[in-house]
C-alpha cells in the first residue's frame, strides 16, 4: 500500500498511539488502514462414497488438485460461500454439512474454513478456474499432486472421520513464513 | 474507497470480467481492490465457575458488556488472537480451549469466532478499551446490557453446554442489514 484510498495522499508505515503493530497511516487525512487476514471457505463434496476434486487452472499451484474453495465474500454466511465456490469452480450444487477443519495459514495471512458436503447428483464440470473436475475414490486421490497443505489436511481428516463414523472438527496451523533477515 | 492504494488514481466501481460482484478498480493501473469480511476472535474466560466480562470504553456500544474479542491480526492463529484480545482488553492471561461459536454477522461484514477459555488466576483489570472488567456468576450476567447479539449467543451457548457437561460448537447468522431502497 502506497496511497490513502480515502484521499489519495501517500501513506506512511508506523505504529499508531496505543496500538501494537505498524499500520499504513495517511500523511494527509490521518486515516489508519488496517490489513487483516482473509477467510478462505471450501468443502469436501461427497457423492456415493467418492470425493469431488478440481485441478486448478490458475496460479498459485496451477495444475495441482484441490477441493472447491475460495475467498469468502461480504454478505454471505460461511456455508453460503462454500456452496458458491463449489458452484463456480466445479459447477456443482452441494449441500453444506458439518464443520471439518479450521486452518490458520500464517504465510498466506489466511484462515481456511472447510466443511463436509453432499453432492446429491453426479452433475459437475470445470468452471473457469478449473482445468478438470472429477469424482475419485479414496484410493484414487492424487496425494502427490495436491495443491495446498490445507487441502491435504482436509481430505485426510475427512476420510479418517468417515472411516471412524464420526464428524469431528479439526484445528491446525500452517506456517511457511520465511525467517526475518 | 475513492483512490487506488497502489498508484493514487481514482477508482471506479464495476464488475470485472468473469467476476460476479462489483469491485473498486483503478482507472489508471487497473488494480482490482477486493474487500472481504473480517474475522473477530474472542473467548469466554471462566475462573472457578465465574465468567470474565468487560464493559466497553469505545464505540460501538460504549458502556455495554461484552467478552474479550477483537479483530484477528495477520501472523497469529485464531487462538493466539483470542488470547491477545483477553490480554489487551481485560489484562487477563487465559488458556484458550475448544471452539464455542462461529457467527456470520452479515450487517457488519464479519465472522465472529469465539472459544472457551480458562482464566487460571483471578488476575485481571480494565485495558484501554474497557471501562470495567469483572467476574460474574451466571445469574449476575447483565443480559439487558450485553453489547452484541454474538456476545449474548456465545454466553448462552456456553452456559447451556456447561450445564449439560458438553463442549459443542455452534453456528449462527445475524443479519440486521437494511433493505435495499
Weakly predicted, low-confidence segments of chain A:
none
SSE succession of chain A: EEEEEEEHEEEHE
The CATH homologous superfamily name of the largest domain in chain A equals Nucleoside Triphosphate Pyrophosphohydrolase
Oligomer: homodimer
- Overall 3D geometry of chain A? elongated
Mean of residue pLDDT values of chain A: 95
**Structural class of the secondary elements of chain A?**
alpha+beta
Q: What's the architecture of the largest domain in chain A in CATH terms?
A: Alpha-Beta Complex
What fold name goes in the CATH topology slot of the largest domain in chain A?
Nucleoside Triphosphate Pyrophosphohydrolase
Largest sheet of chain A: 8 strands, mixed
* Approximate helicity band of chain A: 10-25%
What is the total domain count of chain A?
Answer: 2
CATH class of the largest domain in chain A: Alpha Beta
Percent of residues in β-strands of chain A: 35-45%
Structure description:
Two copies of one chain form a homodimer. Chain A has helices spanning 78-90, 149-164; strands at residues 11-14, 23-26, 32-33, 38-47, 50-56, 65-66, 69-71, 95-105, 110-118, 130-136, 170-174. Chain A has two domains: 1-35, Ubiquitin Ligase Nedd4, Chain: W (Single Sheet), CATH 2.20.70.10; 38-174, Nucleoside Triphosphate Pyrophosphohydrolase, CATH 3.90.79.10. In chain A, the strands form two sheets. In chain A, strands 4, 5, 6, 7, 8, 9, 10 and 11 form an eight-stranded mixed β-sheet that branches. In chain A, strands 1-2-3 form a three-stranded antiparallel β-sheet, with no helix packed on it. Chain A has 181 residues and is an alpha+beta fold. Chain A is elongated. Chain A binds chain B through residues 1-11, 18, 20-21, 24, 33-39, 71-79, 88, 99, 102, 104, 106, 109, 111, 113, 128, 169, 171, 173, 177, and chain B through 1-11, 18, 20-21, 24, 33-39, 71-79, 88, 99, 102, 104, 106, 109, 111, 113, 128, 169, 171, 173, 177.
Amino acid at each position: 500500500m502506497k496511497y490513502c484510498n480515502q484521499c489519495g495522499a501517500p501513506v506512511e508505515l508506523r505504529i499508531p498511539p496505543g496500538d501494537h503493530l505498524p499500520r499504513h497511516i495517511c500523511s494527509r487525512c490521518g486515516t489508519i488502514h488496517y490489513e487483516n487476514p482473509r477467510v478462505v471457505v471450501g468443502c469436501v463434496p461427497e457423492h456415493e462414497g467418492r470425493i469431488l476434486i478440481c485441478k486448478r487452472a490458475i496460479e498459485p499451484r496451477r495444475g495441482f488438485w484441490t477441493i472447491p474453495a475460495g475467498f469468502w465474500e461480504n454478505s454471505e454466511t460461511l456455508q453460503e460461500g462454500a456452496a458458491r465456490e463449489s458452484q463456480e469452480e466445479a459447477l456443482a450444487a452441494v449441500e453444506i454439512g458439518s464443520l471439518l477443519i479450521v486452518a490458520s495459514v500464517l504465510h498466506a495471512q489466511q484462515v481456511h474454513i472447510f466443511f463436509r458436503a453432499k453432492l446429491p447428483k453426479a452433475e459437475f464440470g470445470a468452471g473457469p478456474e478449473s482445468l478438470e473436475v472429477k469424482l475419485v475414490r479414496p484410493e484414487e486421490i492424487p496425494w502427490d499432486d495436491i495443491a495446498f497443505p490445507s487441502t491435504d489436511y482436509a481430505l485426510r481428516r475427512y476420510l479418517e472421520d468417515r472411516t471412524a463414523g464420526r464428524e469431528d472438527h479439526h484445528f491446525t496451523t500452517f506456517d511457511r513464513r520465511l525467517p526475518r533477515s
